[in-house]
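Record now logged underneath.
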Amino acid sequence: MRSLIILSTLLAVGLAVPFEVLSSRSLTEREEAQLAERHSQGWSWHEKNNNNPTCPANGNLPATGYLSPTLMVPIAASAPNIAFGSTQNPIITPNNFCTIFNLVIPGSAVGKTCTLEFLFPSFPKQTKSPTVYNGPGHFTFTGYAFDSGATLKTTYNNQPPPGPSPPQPPAVLAPGNAYIINVGDCGIQPGQTSMTVSGKLCSTDTTFIFRQSSDVCPIGFFVVIS
C-alpha cells in the first residue's frame, strides 16, 4: 500500500504540471503508457524503424570503461520525510522533486581521469526512452561527500552530507546535446576497492522525467574512465 501511495504522489506531481513530450506532437496518456510498456518489454521503435539513429555530437559511450548509476533516488521538498526508494525514471520538477544519482568508482580507477557526462538525446528521434521535458532548462548539480551516497531510506530531510560540486556545470541542459559536467582525477586512493560518488539534479524552472538508459543513444548520467 505504501508503494502505491508513493507512486501516486510521483505521478501526481509529474503529470499535474504543464509538460511537453519531445515529439512532433503531444502524446496522449494512453500513448505514453504504451511507450513505457514497450520499453519495459525490451521493444524498441528504433529496432523496427531506425537502426542507426544519429546521436548528439559526443553523445556515444565507449565500448568499455564507463559507469552507469548504481542507484537513483527521488526526493521531494513537498514530502520531506518520505523515502521514495530506487527508481529507473529520475524526476525533477521546479523547486520540488530532485533525484540523487550514485555512481561507484572501481579500485582500478586509481590515478585515472573520470569524466562525468550528461547525455541528452532527443525523443523519439534519438532515443527510445520516453522523456518529459518542459521549461527553460536550468538545472543545478550538487555533490555529496565521497562514499556517502543515497540509500533506499534517503529523504529530502535526510540527505547525504555535502561535498564537492562541479565548479562550472553547464547553465542549461537541453535535448539533442551531450554535456561534460566535470573532469578530474577519479579520487579513489590506492588500497580502496571502490568509492561511491553522488549528487542531486534539481531545477528551479523545468520539469524533466526520463528513463536512464545506455541503449541506442544513451540518456542520463555516466562516468567515463580514461
